[in-house]
Design brief:
There is one protein chain. This protein is mainly beta and 68 residues long. The protein is built from one helix and four strands; from the N terminus they run βββαβ. Helices cover 12% and strands 31% of the residues. The chain has a four-stranded mixed beta sheet, with helices on one face.
């Protein structure tokens, strides 16, 4: 299981990116929302969508969930 976080600050396109706790691009503490522990990014993105309307996986740490 891996800890996942959502960036509280949206990207320019409105997406809130989902990151693992190990990601080099993990937002600072005050700018991230802990989503919980999940076995994959798909479940983490599903959880993030409960809080934000536009969600995307990080290209670097959640590539399976990243859309262009």
């Amino acid at each position: 299981m891996t800890n996942y976080y959502a960036n509280k600050r949206a990207q320019l396109n409105g997406d809130h990116e989902v990151h693992t706790g190990e990601c080099l691009f993990l937002p600072h503490d005050k700018n991230r929302k802990h989503l919980g522990e999940f076995g994959n990014c798909h479940d983490a993105v599903k959880e993030a969508k409960k809080h934000y309307s536009l969600v995307n996986g990080c290209y670097y740490c959640s590539k399976d969930c990243h859309t262009f």
